[in-house]
## 1
Amino acid sequence: MAYSEKVIDHYQNPRNIGTLDKESTAVGTGLVGAPECGDVMRLQIEVDDATGIIKDAKFKTFGCGSAIASSSLATEWLKGKSVDAAMEIDNMDIVEELALPPVKIHCSVLAEDAIKMAINDYRVKQGLEPIEDNKKHY
Amino acid sequence: MLSFPIYLDNNSTTPMDPRVLEAMLPFFNEKFGNAASRNHSFGWSAEEAVDYAREQVARLVGATSKEIIFTSGATEANNLAIKGVYEMYGSQGNHMITVTTEHKATLDACKKVEKMGGDVTYLSPNEDGLINLADLEAAITDKTILITVMYGNNEIGVVQDLKGISAIAKKNGILFHTDATQAVGKIPVDVLADGIDLMSFTAHKMYGPKGVGALYVRRKNPRVKVTSQMDGGGHERGMRSGTLNVPGIVGFGKACELSQNEMAEEAVRLSAMRDRLEKELLTIEEAYVNGNAEHRLPHVANISFKFVEGEGLMMGTKDIAVSSGSACTSASLEPSYVLKSLGLDDELAHSSLRFGLGRFTTDEEVDFAIDHVKTAVHNLREMSPLWEMFKEGIDLKTIEWAEH
């Protein structure tokens, strides 16, 4: 399969690989996918309590080039955004940016789910209600 | 100088040896006759060339030239052997025995036999890819007419105990067919010593051209016949009609001659190279060799790397041409059925690489492959959450995954 240049770039030079302290109340963690499905994505955000701005984002992904690129791109987009704005990131934005083919759309879905899971993990730690995701992907 | 990607997929196909090409060239235009034309010199010279090639092919496997039936390749030879035996010997029984790790050409021909009313037993191999001879004996019934077990496996290189299998077949009066596509030309194969009744093999796995292969059909003790699957002019003793592919057959013959002369030396060189590749790659943590490490072809290594994903691994090893344990060109990831038959879970089957070294593989290329794979696995693990969990001592089986 031919990958787009952007996917190859993220695969070869992944942004923001790493691990944040998942016990910290300022950190939200999202872990989605399953090993037997061939994709596991972990996305973490660190939020500035005072401003509500995401000051750091890290990922680790077990998966194909498109899954790695989707999560790498997601961390780039998350940094500097408010938590509320981050909630608005749509998987189709990722599809468009990376020119993912139809068989790889699920990689972008995973990334969106990981973002939302990380945000909700952070919200729950802050004593807030998790936000219901009404968007049905599957 | 290395040129990329480096070809390490010689189990899929091999480049043609220049000496083979040279032998073939006159038969495209200068000596273009039909080997079946009996009335002029064009036909005679083609026939002579085919006869000579038939000798070369027969000699490599210890057969006589009359026992070689030329086909379009090993897939056709497997079909002719399996369906041809079923049709020829149907009155004696309708049962066949094969193994789950056979090539698709064998498995699908067996499926066709089942559709035609036959019964097929599919034996499961041990974890190392070898079959249990006791399982084979237990599967035999008074209706069994054919046992078909491949010589050397295409994915893992495991070489079965051919003599043990053929002895069981002989004792029970059952015909024995082997798909020797990966073995012929790589290791000594002798139809008499090995007790083989029918054997499929092909030119393009041994530095010959694509589109030509052969089925060995034993003529004595017992005299074996198969019902033709391609009807027409009655070529190849009536077992395979169709104008002979003269240039291809000439190339096949030359390839056999070269293998016969060079196989012993080449096997020593290739197995040393393969062992070095394997030893180096096994210095990577959580890397495993698939298949029996003792009974196998000299040029094949199949290795799984835990905690990296198959498609990501293929992308990370793009400078070498190898096969992976998954067919991930479509939306559905299909792990290798051969590796699954050995008991590997889907994950480990997906993250395996098959290396097939060949006549033209150099030490320098192997060195590059070692570094390239080590780097790819390292990089992918650096970004793998599974690797991090494994390193922290977390049992991945205990995690509740948010599945899709």
## 2
Amino acid sequence: MEFSVNHPILFIMVAALILVVLAQSVYFLVRAYRRALQIGMQKSSLKKTIISSALFTIAPAISILVGVVALSKSLGLPIPWLRLSIIGSLSYETIAAGNTLNELGTEMGKQITSASAFVTVAWVMTLGIIVGLFLTPLLAKKIQKGMKKIENMDKKWSEIFTNAMFLGMISAFLGYVFWDFSSVFSGKTSALIPVLVMAVSAVIMLVCGLCAKVFKIKWITDYALPISLVGGMAAAIPITNWLG
Amino acid sequence: MKNEMTYLESVHRDGRIWGYTLFVLILAFPLILCLIFGAVPEWSAMARALLSVLPMYWAVGIIEIFTYIPMLGAGGSYLSFVTGNISNLKLPCALDAMEKANVKANSEEGEIISTIAIAVSSIVTTFIIIVGVVLIQVSNLGAVLEAEVLKPAFDQLLPALFGGLAVVFVSKNFKLAIAPLILMLALFIFTPLTSGEVGIMAPVGVLFTLGIARILYKKGVI
């Protein structure tokens, strides 16, 4: 078959694979929902979870789409579409594809013209992310059993344990916001951009919390995270124009 | 009791079936590409590229399994490790959902809420990307998404996400949060760590906070 990075057969293959992944999500969603009703959880609270998760996902999903567009210049649309819908993240896929393109003697942004270069990139991107896919079914049950063991020994500690994990991860991302901070002292004001964006998002979250408490606007808390996310992203535009 | 066992057990059973099926399908994808285009990879370029990405990504992948599975719950893990974007989307989504629903991560309710949040998030992401891919083909959406005006917004997704999330979690666990926050700020400000290293620093933060939590718990502070 004659090769093209945007060959219709590629779209069909990718669509088929994504459909299977979609089916998995739907399957687990239905299972969890049914179980929730079975153990007496409120329908209204499940509905809230569904709506706020969906709203929260919109902005990050669009940013993933931006990644698809960026990668599509060298790889065509189907492969980035697949790679960013399944596992992977933009930072990983960009490095994996970029390194392979360099080894092939070409570069990011230039469209691939040979089938062998194309399959080389596809193999590297696939093999790079395969480890999580292989190990999760192998280890998830054991790891969860370990967590259960901790819980059975000491219930309070087990709660602190999961909270500590969450906080540890969040701290790392807060630290990351300051990664270039030291260069502010040498006059690079753009290093302040992520710090200010984070501050704006945090303030919006605080205001939402206040609104809920003081004015009894309860629905705000349900959507506080999507509101602070989009608010922070919107603020990034003027902040970057100012400091960038 | 038996009924309670059944749900979690069946999540693991089904998760494994889905997981291995997808593992085979995803691995088969590049193989089928080779077959339909009658092409073989450029072996030496492939070997060099693999050498440059595999050690790092496999190591991070293994660490991620142990860090994220306890936080995501069973159903959430099987979904997240297939659909990806865990730290920048799935995990924050699940955390926020459990917080709002007022359920504990280690309870069955927590397991269910986390699974629902992550499943919905995966489905919505998939749909948005499908619609996007179609629109890119038939309109100038691609150019719009890449517009210079919007670029800063997408560049600052993570700070905008974690600012709000931190307020919720740090305010609820203030004593426990101080030490890891100071450590991570110090590490990122005073060492040459770059933005790309946050994937490795997340597990470091988790381990450190667990250690601190144990000490504070033993001393009765928390």
